[in-house]
């Protein structure tokens, strides 16, 4: 076996605290919108991951360079042929109800529960031949073929550990324990007052000596963005996770005395804003029209004015923060003349093009209006169709749009978070998270498949560079921004963001100066 990374090696590369952490205290954190559930094995939307990431854990965490770090696994080995991954589990881990956590829980979580419930992980598990537990502290994953990004799937939102003794043999979706989630994490579920708050308390039996440091955490539900900003100003909340307030409030809030902010903690997700363009019918079915959209948009203006500089103009379907990105592609600058040339080549006849904004606040509405203005300036007839969140989901899932705003997470590797949007095998009505555009290219399908299983990073980079060039030329969607969501917090809150998923698992390390 070839040992890759172990706990002792990993911690040499981390910045260790220079002062002793104070213990005790409470944090109030905004969560918005209110999660539909806290059962992370069943629901993986953003608000659920924010709260449940402190209740549930996986085998690994990831630093801001996406290197794996210990979590429920204290060390791991990868065989020379990259087909066998062996994890050694931490000692003394218990579930929140006091039952011991063992390798059998890992096997059940991965091979039974999550194969059934977790659509995104299921795609990665297609490469797994078996998951076994030679003993209570050892788990072995045998792969059918090398799968380069496999070491990146052991994150709480991607592969949460589920208690076998509670869920085995039950109807997972209707198990009563879903209402009172039980994990191994640093905080335990205590109470959920719907529409008001979710209360977690310190796990006194956590396996890391002395951690967590806080006594309790309240996740506050405040539906209105302006009210969330006021709650922070008034000291009612201590942390505004990324996206909690409108962008134009960020500067004012971060300039307050005793307030800090960071853009770190989104490296694993690398949120990529884009607009689906319906490749099946209407004006957007024509590649020249789609290129016209790219040249018509002033994305630098959007970055600087609408997003207040919190972002980078996207040049590819792969984020520059994600492994295997290349900038060797067509660069669609703001060029109205080129946009008009492509409109003429497309034979555009003035038919109405419907834009579906993302109903996540005024920032997104302003963005849709900016796109409308840019397109009208080059001669496109545009209609903005406003919806609520449910309507936005439904219209995308039913392909009832021409251009539709969204943003998706990339999960550190194109095989995990990018390919899903372009594979022809991932076209299916009923979901806003698959190949919603309806793009089909057999060569792209083949390249994604080859890149996912290529033996070396160099081979993967070569193939992913080719697939990015092809996609940027086909322009099945309009890539917009690599968006940034600054986390705003009181400066007396320390070590809040210590991993690539930020606040979602940061409360294990967080403490408050007393």
From TrEMBL:
Stated name of the protein? Peptide ABC transporter substrate-binding protein
Provide the GO biological process annotations: peptide transport
Does the keyword section mention Nucleotide-binding?
no
Q: Which organism is it from?
A: Roseovarius atlanticus
Q: A GO molecular-function term, please? A: peptide transmembrane transporter activity
Cross-referenced InterPro entries: Peptide/Ni-bd, SBP_5, SBP_5_dom
Pfam families, per database record: SBP_bac_5
Chief location:
periplasm
Instruction: Name where it's found.
Output: Periplasm
Q: Which GO terms describe its cellular component?
A: ATP-binding cassette (ABC) transporter complex; outer membrane-bounded periplasmic space
Q: Solute-binding protein family domain location, by residue?
A: 68-426
* PANTHER family attached to this UniProt entry: D,D-DIPEPTIDE-BINDING PERIPLASMIC PROTEIN DDPA-RELATED, PERIPLASMIC BINDING COMPONENT OF ABC TRANSPORTER
Keywords for the protein's UniProt record, in alphabetical order: Signal
By sequence similarity, the record places it as follows:
Belongs to the bacterial solute-binding protein 5 family.
Signal sequence region: 1-20
């Amino acid at each position: 076996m070839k040992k890759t990374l172990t706990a002792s090696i990993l911690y040499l590369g981390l910045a260790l605290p220079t002062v002793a952490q104070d213990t005790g205290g409470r944090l109030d954190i905004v969560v918005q919108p209110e999660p539909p559930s806290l059962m992370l094995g069943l629901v993986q939307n953003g608000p659920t991951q924010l709260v449940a990431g402190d209740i549930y854990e996986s085998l690994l965490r990831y630093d801001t360079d996406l290197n794996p770090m210990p979590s429920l696994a204290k060390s791991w080995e990868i065989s020379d042929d990259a087909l066998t991954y062996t994890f050694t589990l931490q000692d003394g881990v218990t579930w929140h109800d006091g039952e011991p956590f063992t390798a059998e829980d890992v096997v059940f979580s991965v091979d039974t529960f999550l194969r059934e419930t977790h659509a995104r992980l299921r795609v990665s598990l297609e490469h797994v031949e078996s998951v076994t537990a030679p003993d209570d502290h050892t788990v072995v994953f045998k792969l059918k073929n090398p799968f380069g990004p496999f070491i990146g799937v052991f994150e709480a939102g991607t592969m949460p550990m589920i208690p076998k003794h509670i869920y085995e043999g039950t109807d997972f979706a209707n198990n009563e324990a879903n209402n009172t989630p039980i994990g191994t994490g640093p905080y335990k579920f205590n109470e959920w007052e719907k529409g008001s708050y979710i209360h977690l308390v310190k796990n006194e039996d956590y396996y890391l000596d002395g951690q967590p440091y806080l006594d309790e955490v309240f996740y506050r539900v405040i539906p209105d963005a302006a009210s969330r900003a006021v709650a922070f100003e008034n000291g009612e909340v201590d942390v505004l996770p990324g996206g909690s307030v409108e962008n134009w409030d960020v500067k004012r809030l971060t300039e307050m005395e005793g307030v800090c902010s960071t853009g770190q903690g989104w490296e694993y997700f690398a949120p990529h804003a884009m607009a689906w363009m319906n490749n099946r019918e209407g004006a957007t079915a024509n590649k020249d029209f789609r290129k016209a959209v790219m040249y018509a948009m002033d994305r630098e203006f959007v970055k600087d004015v609408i997003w207040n500089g919190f972002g980078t103009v996207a040049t590819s379907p792969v984020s520059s923060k994600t492994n295997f990105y290349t900038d060797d592609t067509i660069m669609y600058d703001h060029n109205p003349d080129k946009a008009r040339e492509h409109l003429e080549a497309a034979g555009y006849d003035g038919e109405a093009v419907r834009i579906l904004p993302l109903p996540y606040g005024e920032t997104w509405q302003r963005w849709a209006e900016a796109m409308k203005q840019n397109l009208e300036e080059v001669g496109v007839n545009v209609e903005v169709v406003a919806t609520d969140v449910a309507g936005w989901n439904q219209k995308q899932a039913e392909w009832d749009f021409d251009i539709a705003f969204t943003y998706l997470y990339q999960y550190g590797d194109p095989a995990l978070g990018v390919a899903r949007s372009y594979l022809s095998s991932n076209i299916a009505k009923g979901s806003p998270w698959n190949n919603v555009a309806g793009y089909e290219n057999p060569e792209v399908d083949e390249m994604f498949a080859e890149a996912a299983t290529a033996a070396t990073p160099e081979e993967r980079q070569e193939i992913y560079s080719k697939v990015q060039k092809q996609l940027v030329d086909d322009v099945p969607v309009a890539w917009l921004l690599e968006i940034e969501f600054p986390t705003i917090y009181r400066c007396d809150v320390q070590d809040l963001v210590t991993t690539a998923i930020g606040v979602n698992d940061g409360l294990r390390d967080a403490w408050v100066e007393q």
